[in-house]
Amino acid sequence: MDLHGAFHVYDTTLRDGAQQEGLNLSVADKLAIARQLDGLGVGFIEGGWPGANPKDTEFFRRAAQELDLRHARLTAFGSTRRAGVRAADDPQVAALRDSGAPVVTLVAKSHDRHVELALRTTLEENLAMVRDTVGHLRAEGQQVFLDAEHFFDGYRANRDYALEVLRTAHEAGAEVVALCDTNGGMLPGWISDVVHDVIETAGVRVGIHAHNDSGCAVANSLAAIDAGATHVQGCINGYGERTGNADLVTVVANLELKLDRAVLPAGLLQESTRIAHAVAEVTNVPPASRQPYVGASAFAHKAGLHASAIKVDPDLYQHTQPERVGNDMRLLVSDMAGRASIELKGRELGFDLGSDKELLARVTDRVKALEATGFTFEAADASFELLLEEMVSGQRPSYFEVESWRVITETLDRRSAGEEAVSEATVKIVAQGQRHVVTGEGNGPVNALDQALRTAIGQAFPAVVKFELIDYKVRILDQGHGTDAITRVLIETTDGESSWVTVGVGHNVIEASWGALVDALTFGLRRQGA
Amino acid sequence: MDLHGAFHVYDTTLRDGAQQEGLNLSVADKLAIARQLDGLGVGFIEGGWPGANPKDTEFFRRAAQELDLRHARLTAFGSTRRAGVRAADDPQVAALRDSGAPVVTLVAKSHDRHVELALRTTLEENLAMVRDTVGHLRAEGQQVFLDAEHFFDGYRANRDYALEVLRTAHEAGAEVVALCDTNGGMLPGWISDVVHDVIETAGVRVGIHAHNDSGCAVANSLAAIDAGATHVQGCINGYGERTGNADLVTVVANLELKLDRAVLPAGLLQESTRIAHAVAEVTNVPPASRQPYVGASAFAHKAGLHASAIKVDPDLYQHTQPERVGNDMRLLVSDMAGRASIELKGRELGFDLGSDKELLARVTDRVKALEATGFTFEAADASFELLLEEMVSGQRPSYFEVESWRVITETLDRRSAGEEAVSEATVKIVAQGQRHVVTGEGNGPVNALDQALRTAIGQAFPAVVKFELIDYKVRILDQGHGTDAITRVLIETTDGESSWVTVGVGHNVIEASWGALVDALTFGLRRQGA
């Protein structure tokens, strides 16, 4: 079979993915995500349920006008007709018909008990609902898929009826019947057995729709495909209700890179890291660093022992080449770091340390000494780059001199109730020969220091106005010493285009934060070429 | 086979899990996690690599004295001897022998090219290293397992040699050879084929060690077990390098609940949600809400359509009963706790909430409201107990009234070099009718507040002199808002005999810390019967 032409990669991020707790997509969000999905080359984008809510109706209206899809066909999701009415007379079916989407995916019950309990109708009427609705939409010129809800549970409970639902849809003109593990509890061996039986017995084209409740959504999808399914549904970044749907990028990367099945248009898989992160920006769900293939940590190695071997043959230490999904190998500079990994890390940042053995030894010693006091450069590339710059040039990049700083946090008298604590910081610095004394306020001490420092420096370097602190992490080292311990702070800063991470360490959490703040502004100014 | 007796559930959180980017565990962290793992009933806890770094050596020293394991055997991880020396003369092997751990897991190369490239020795010498090291430790009375590193890649490259490594270990006395998918790129069908072949050809007892790089770590583990493996390695919460190791709780829950294999002591699986979250508090890695079985969203339904059907038969809408893993079904968004778990937790703390439904409902509502603002009571039992006491008696235990507090952190003029930042706090409180105004100093703002508050209260309640703050954790909620986010602080306090954890929340990290400090002293005084 020509898989490139025939195999369906079907994305349901905009419908089933949006069921995720805490995920709320506006119409503009959905349009933006649809464009990204099309850029990945998926074959179908399920946009929502027109008629079920005004947002989805509006999405299909705007999609018809604004979306210029190169690869994907827009798909409307909806239900079979209500019991006891004609499909042509059911307003919910009309909304699907009139959505402008060339494809409709109809959800139907295939588990006998759900027909009785949730639909409150007879098994016969449910079959008629499938037959009529599929037939009506086919007659109106739409391509129709069927989502057989709770299929695997239904198959266990009443195999004959579950298969009958599939056959009915197929005979009425549904091109694919997607078997849904709606509750997500299946395991790969079970999926495989059922898909084999369905294809052999019912003679239909099978799709798979898996959820991750048993942690096997990806493997379940692959098991179904191995058993003959030629249509796979999933969501980018594994979004979805409860534990999420099958992560479509992981499924597709496994198919392309491990099973040699070209299911996306050529060259597009390498867009997947960029696209997965771009979609995460729209959904505002922080990307999981441990996500397979596209996660920030997916190809990150705590080098140490193996660094020299990695230099000789990186493929011995990675399951695939990160470039194939648009990701990068990263070497983490950790307390196990040796010279080889620091040399490699330096090269990544544009410093050639390999040609100067003495310098490399000094950098390695310095990193080890700093790590012994609590620093980590694993995440803090920007602080590491400043350190390298200092060791190579003999001077740390510096745009301002700190004279002193102070921050006060206090509550007003508690008897005047309802007051929150407030923080106020004063910093005294010298920049470009000018002394600046600035006070800033904030809802926390670091917030106040950040305000004051950026205002002070901004008088000499207006670029810092654009800088924004977007993440702040505190880690207490040396547990067992309470507040008398070493504190490590990681700060992520953005200039609106890219972001960088800096680190600060100290007995005092405020001092550690200050160190990371100073590095953050210094790195940002250096990058701006200040 | 009697699986309950024979099957090995092997946790490597403290060794391989600790390889995760950004995860740094102190010795006290590792001891705390080991206690939790033992509470889950795993059979083996791999504690680290004694001799490889001072922290792991210290862990094994303290574990021998402080850990009183009921279910698990402590396991030391290390390498086969160096090339060209006797195992008995290798200091790395000596550290394993002298670790006090009854079990040693030796990592060995089983991929020919890794032997040549990373070990830089011959294939024959590698076999001798396996034979000698296993034999030596067995002769010294330790139980020995072998981790066959890069096994699946090695099997593809040179099947005969990979099998020879296993046979050699087995003949020298290794009880289990764990096949490691070190690079994590395998798929279930491949794992199944190789495990079948290994068991048939080499006649060894097989374990499985899977990583999640293809998103199939859980399915790969199950595939190996289905093919005959009787030892499974993984990490709680799926921690680990790159994309993580197999999530041990998901694997075990699938085995127990879906495959009817009792691999944990009876009754302990239902502790898994609590334990997974308690470990996350220690690692300070935010728990993934979409985590199978134990995630906050794992049994959360956007009810809507199905609400009435769910009420009739919830099992139609969930793949297993959440109580079996100690989790709860949730029908509404944004509430973290259900009544059942609050009733259970109350019982644990000596409050019978089950007999008063109205009280239980009020406590549940209050917990939900507090959790919505950022509180968590999963780890902070002491704050939860104060809350219960307040709800049951109508009054929060209180030994002092806070009038106001203030803390100043500052650096002296940097031109007088070498000075660290200092913090100074002033608190004004009323205890037993007496007003106390006390100033304390510290090397951080919370340390200064703690000093001042304890001095002030100590004048009325001398018992607090014994109290010591032994751990302090900060988590920024609402990632993506920088320093302008909600902060949650957890504080652990000891009176020299036992310790307790309290929680505070606020926009201002100092205010959140203050809330946790006040709870900590209040709880301690209550326990002393003040």
For the record, give the distance between the C-alpha atoms at the N and C termini of chain A, rounded to a whole number.
Answer: 59 Å
Q: What is the assigned CATH homologous superfamily of the largest domain in chain A?
A: Aldolase class I
Query: What multimeric state do the chains show?
Result: homodimer
Largest interface: A-B, 125 and 123 residues
By DSSP, the count of extended strands of chain A is 16
Mean pLDDT of chain A: 90
Question: How many helical stretches of chain A?
Answer: 18
Write structural notes for this entry.
- The structure is a homodimer of 530-residue chains.
- Chain A is α/β, with parallel strands linked by helices.
- Chain A has 3 domains: 3-283, Alpha-Beta Barrel (TIM Barrel); 300-372, no CATH class; 400-460, 2-Layer Sandwich (Double Stranded RNA Binding Domain), CATH 3.30.160.
- Chain A is 40% helix and 20% strand.
- The first copy, chain A, contains 18 helices and 16 strands.
- Chain A has helices at 3-6, 27-40, 54-66, 91-97, 112-119, 123-139, 151-157, 159-172, 188-202, 217-226, 248-258, 272-283, 307-312, 339-348, 357-372, 381-393, 445-458, 509-527, and strands at residues 8-11, 44-48, 73-79, 103-109, 143-149, 176-181, 206-210, 231-234, 300-302, 330-332, 401-410, 422-431, 434-442, 468-476, 487-494, 499-506.
- Chain A has an 8-stranded parallel β-barrel with strand order 1-2-3-4-5-6-7-8, surrounded by 10 helices. A 3-stranded antiparallel beta sheet of chain A has the order 11-12-13.
- Chain A starts with a helix and ends with a helix.
- At the A-B interface, helix 5, helix 10, helix 11, strand 9 and strand 11 of A face helix 2, helix 5, helix 10, helix 11 and strand 9 of B.
- Strand 11 (401-410) of chain A pairs antiparallel with strand 9 of chain B, so a sheet runs across the interface.
